[in-house]
Amino acid sequence: MDTTAAPLAPNVRVLLVDSGGARAADTRQDGIPKDFPADVVHVCTGTAPILGNPREDPTAAAHSLLAEPGVRAVVLLTPEGTLGSPAESGLVFGSLERCCEPDGADHIVALLLAAQHPPRARLAVVTGARGGLGASTFLLHLARAGHAGGKRVALVDADPAGGLGLLMGDGVLPGLRWADLPADEPAFRPERLVAALPAWLGMPVITGDGRGGVRSPGQLRPVLDALRAEHDLVLLDLPRGAVPPADATVMLMSGLDLRSAVAAEALAARLKGTSRTGRADPGDRAPTGSNPNPAEPRKVYTVIRRIGEDVTPDELALMTRTEIVAVLPHDRAVAQRIARGDDPTRGRGALRTQARAVAARLLGDNPHEEAQW
């Protein structure tokens, strides 16, 4: 991470609150733990880390710092487990012990960037109950609809094999692919990442190529965080069966054939983070993102592709325990454009109309602070 050109987080302060204990004898003269990367904090923010009074309420001390001129966010570091992670504007919580580990410098940089550039975009995931339903094509229509409505939209291909770029026709400009990004980068400067990515119809895209796609959830998380800081909507093309970020709105595409319906029933419970009985499954949590209400299941909605006649839309809604937000007819013109290698979102039709309705609901019903419909 390059921190020499300019401060990464000039409007952020780092507050350390340590009750003593094991670290009391392992501190510098100023009270900062010896293995804490204080020099990294100074380079990234332009100020030294602040040692809080252990007798004072840490959150109140952080709010006092927020009231100072020029301070937009505070990274509050406390002993492991002494504070939760409430969704408070301007506060980013972290573990002091974690920052004192050998790779603590990378961790503090990620926290500082998250504080300086908080995620503001709604994250919407599109995934299919099975292959061949057109989930990626629908995602492109959603992106085009949101962009046409004046919103800032970014697209992320989470398929390890890549491939979303192949659906976009010849309109994708040059830029970095997944293989060009380091697999272990803890955070990215949002403006630099966006400028380096290829663009499709003016929207940044991160996808794979012949070298492969995303290598791990750890590579995906910092990219999502950076894109969410610069956009209104980030659309994630998720492979079937993968676990989405905890604060994502999920759209599960299914046909009306029996194979799709049974798969959608099983996947809907997994995507919500619940068992089939509807109870929350704390062990099935996403490796990325942060849910302000982690005990609650994710919101999952179903998009129906009119393939098959084994079940009705109402029956599918009962099976998946989800709301149907769109019913997409088979569009022969879209299939022909894909076969020719053209942009599948060109032209008019029912698919574009439905995508506009879903995009409007994603972007218009609630302010961006609310993660789900």
Automatic annotation (TrEMBL):
MF term (GO), any: ATP binding
Database matches in Pfam families: CBP_BcsQ (PF06564)
Entry's Gene Ontology cellular component terms: cytoplasmic side of plasma membrane; cytosol
One of the GO biological process terms: negative regulation of cell division
Superkingdom of source: Bacteria
Chain spans, region Disordered: 272-297
Name under which the protein is recorded: Cellulose biosynthesis protein BcsQ
Organism: Actinomyces ruminicola
Taxonomic lineage: Bacteria, Bacillati, Actinomycetota, Actinomycetes, Actinomycetales
